Amino acid sequence: MKHELLQPVIFNVITIVALLFSLFQVLTGASGRLIRTADAIHALEELAAEGVLKDDSIISGLSTNRDQRTRLDNYLIVTMIVAILANVVANYLGRGRHHTNTSRIRELEAELRGRRED
User: Fold this and answer.
1) How far is CA 103 from CA 2, 11, 96, 98, 107, in A?
2) pTM for this model (two decimals)
């Protein structure tokens, strides 16, 4: 009986660990991309200030792109956090339901044994 209970728990733990790993990857990757994009925008702004770069649309396009990626990264982070929390809550509720069902099964088995003895 415990072996059957253990399998879903293992898969749920693997799911949580995978989501945490993905969340970590998004967080570290997002900060690196934002820093590189900010450096590129800063370099282009310097070129524009020196008069080398005449087209300001490149800078505004990169800024817009950076903002869109920031929003996407935030959506991914929130989605992963919600998925992790939902998995934890589902595991907690599932365990409580399992214990309730197990105790009810034991009561019914005891009642069945009592009837067989009669």
Assistant:
1) 14, 24, 11, 9, 6
2) 0.54
